[in-house]
Design brief:
single chain, about 375 residues, mainly alpha, two-stranded antiparallel sheet, about 70% helix, globular, transmembrane, Acyltransferase family, Acyl_transf_3_dom, membrane
Length: about 375
């Protein structure tokens, strides 16, 4: 019998995408209110989760094609990074276009004494690094679609790490990755400015690159742990124990997640076990994985990407043009959700039309 795919990780990605949405929406809530206190940590740890998943899938991809990847590791690293971006390129550039138009309107409204042509040209020049996905190298001037810093940092870090993985897979997965992840995580914990921001720079490295390095290395170590679980805890007798471990970790992390935040220093330590939960989920050896095998769940990963790339445009419209300023903040949350849904639908439609147009041209005989 053919085994069904486990979509539990996709559901987790959807959950953390919604948390990042609510983190950015927190500016619509009253300052010092409960909504801000609860969601204050969701942005940092939501992105950290995605870095972990990215590192884990990077290691998984390498191990599935290990023989062919070790022949020319440099070219293999470039191919991997290019393929990684190609899978999201349509959504990336379409959502970038939405945010560019919105940012242009915002700048026109804020600087009415400056000509539209000058404003447009300055915006084009400032958005070049983001357009080429290198803003996290430190050349970032403005943030058109600010959430895309994650993609830039991920790709910049994956290029050398994938090469390292090709050259020394055993050392990278079992020694370097867990050590580097833990040391960087400890470094973030000791910083005195709250959650370590992607725009903070330490020497030549942006905060986004350091956060990506920490999360991706943690993800590679998570893959090694998940593989160990598959190899040594595959018997039926361990399934119940792994299920119990997953439930306990999930309840603990959820309680930390939904209660008002304390200091960032305390939250770093409290949410340290996230990779352990991801490893159990990815191993598929817990009984809970059987609940996430419905075929319709295959669409949830696409939905997560659409929400992630398009919600910032909605937030920009509401905050910069003071939409529904006199309404209760929950209604403004609802407005942001509706605008995000509209941008997601438009983005998906445009992507489909572009793909269909190119497909038809490619199929025509020369």
């Amino acid at each position: 019998m053919e085994s069904k795919r486990n979509y539990q990780l996709d559901v987790l990605k959807f959950f953390f995408t919604l948390c990042i949405f609510l983190y950015h929406a927190r500016l619509l809530a009253p300052a010092g209110g409960l909504a801000r206190q609860i969601s204050d940590k969701w942005g940092w740890f939501g992105v950290h989760f995605f870095f972990i998943v990215s590192g884990m899938l990077m290691a998984n991809s390498f191990m599935r094609h290990r023989t062919e990847q070790t022949q020319e590791p440099g070219k293999a690293a470039v191919r991997f990074v290019v393929h990684k971006f190609r899978s999201i390129a349509g959504i990336y550039f379409i959502s970038f276009s939405f945010n560019f138009v919105i940012r242009f309107c915002i700048e026109l409204h804020a600087h009415q004494d400056v000509s539209a042509l000058t404003t447009l040209w300055k915006l084009i020049l400032g958005s070049v690094p983001e357009l080429f996905l290198v803003q996290m190298s430190g050349v970032r001037q403005i943030g058109v679609n600010s959430v895309t810093w994650y993609i830039s940092a991920m790709l910049l870090v994956m290029l050398p790490l994938y090469y390292f993985l090709c050259k020394k897979p055993d050392f990278f997965l079992h020694v370097f990755s867990p050590t580097a992840a833990l040391m960087l995580y400890g470094f973030f914990t000791q910083m005195d400015n709250g959650y370590f921001d992607q725009n903070d720079c330490i020497g030549p490295f942006s905060g986004g690159v350091l956060r990506a390095l920490c999360g991706i290395c943690a993800g590679a170590a998570t893959w090694a742990l998940a593989q160990w679980i598959r190899e040594h805890l595959s018997d039926q007798q361990y399934s119940t124990k792994l299920t119990l471990i997953e439930v306990l970790f999930s309840v603990y992390l959820l309680l930390v997640w939904i209660f008002p935040s304390f200091s960032a220093h305390l939250m770093y330590g409290a949410l340290l076990p996230i990779p352990l939960l991801v490893a159990v989920v990815f191993s598929g050896k817990s009984r809970i994985s059987a609940l996430f095998q419905m075929p319709w769940l295959r669409h949830i990963n696409r939905l997560s990407m659409l929400i992630y790339f398009n919600h910032y445009a909605a937030r920009q419209l509401i905050t910069r043009f003071d939409l529904w300023l006199d309404r209760p903040y929950l209604q403004r949350y609802l407005l942001m959700a509706m605008l995000t849904a509209g941008f997601c639908l438009l983005c998906a439609t445009l992507e489909w039309l572009i793909h269909r147009c190119f497909s038809q041209k490619a199929s025509k005989p020369v």
